[in-house]
Amino acid sequence: MNFAVVGQKIKELRKNIGISQEELSEGICTQAQISKIEKGDVYPYASTLYLISTKLGVDVNYFFDIGMTPRLDYVQEVSKQLIKARRNLEYIEMKEIVRTEEENPLFSNNKRNLQLLLWHKGIYQYELEKNISKAESSLRDAISLTHTSNKVWSERELEILLTIGVMYFEIGELENSFEIYQEVKEHLEILPYISDYTIKTRLYYNIARVLTRLRNLELSNEYCKDAIQWCIQKDNMYLLGELHYHMGYNLELQSDLEHAKKYMQKALTVFELQNDDKYIKFITKKINDMN
């Protein structure tokens, strides 16, 4: 752990919000102790670091990450670029980012950072090269970088495993896809805390899609309902429109057009609120065709 870098960041954050060492130390430790921490002469206990992080308005894990990766801001920016490329389906850009950073010591010498690159490498290998075995190999290698116990999986490891399931779904290997999704679900359920609520939403949505293809429409809708309730519970609209549309689609397949239109109308409302034009025209046409 790089104590000096952590101390420098505490000092920087303290000055940014305009408080003195004495004000930061109040209720935590002495002013002299804060001075030593900022200089890198001592490293605080975890409980002290937690109190400092709370007063500075950041997550305590921020300091642990900085201690391991001095240029965390750069790594975070690369991560944001990869996430953006993934969500916008910009796979060529994703490939360029990964290839640029592969030799960067900030990534090659840090397992979690390298895992991030391998995860996205597997994605573009599938999307651009259509080589699922090569892509899965990269994704499995990414998981193995941090996976130490088969009993407990991290959120990111489960996200990568979910990515493999999506690939199998897209090439029509539904049974393999469903098996992977069930594995993700089992491991996700034993996690005591989920920091990224969208993992569960994505998982349930993808399970629902497989079940629809397998013609198990009733169970597919149960997963959609559970995911919708999860979104509402967590006050998060991610995939909320897609889930309502998928329920409408299932009901359409069951020839229950009255209820199908209601769910598609709800989906349309969500997409309109999100200004998501790519679905609005399509769903509007579907609703009109049912009239």
List keywords for this structure.
77% helix, 291 residues, globular, 17 helices, 434 Repressor (Amino-terminal Domain), mainly alpha
CATH superfamily of the domain at 3-68: lambda repressor-like DNA-binding domains
Quote the average pLDDT: 89
* Largest sheet composition: none
Shape: globular
Which stretches are poorly predicted, pLDDT < 50 over at least 5 residues?
none
Give the % helix. Answer: over 70%
- Quote the distance from N terminus to C terminus: 65 Å
Give the CATH level 1 class of the domain at 3-68.
Answer: Mainly Alpha
* CATH structural fold name of the domain at 3-68: 434 Repressor (Amino-terminal Domain)
CATH architecture annotation of the domain at 3-68: Orthogonal Bundle
Number of helices: 17
Q: What oligomeric assembly is this protein in?
A: single chain
Rg measurement, Å: 23 Å
Q: What class, by secondary structure content?
A: mainly alpha
Question: How many strand units?
Answer: 0
Strand proportion, as a percent range, falls in under 5%
Helix/strand order: HHHHHHHHHHHHHHHHH
Describe the fold and architecture.
Helix content is 77%, strand content 0%. By secondary structure, the chain is mainly α. The protein has a domain at 3-68: Orthogonal Bundle (434 Repressor (Amino-terminal Domain)). Helix 9 packs antiparallel against helix 10 (132-146). The chain starts with a helix and ends with a helix. The relative contact order is 0.05. The model has no long low-confidence stretch (mean pLDDT 89).
Provide a short characterization of the protein structure.
The protein is built from 17 helices and no strands. With 291 residues, the chain is an all-alpha fold.
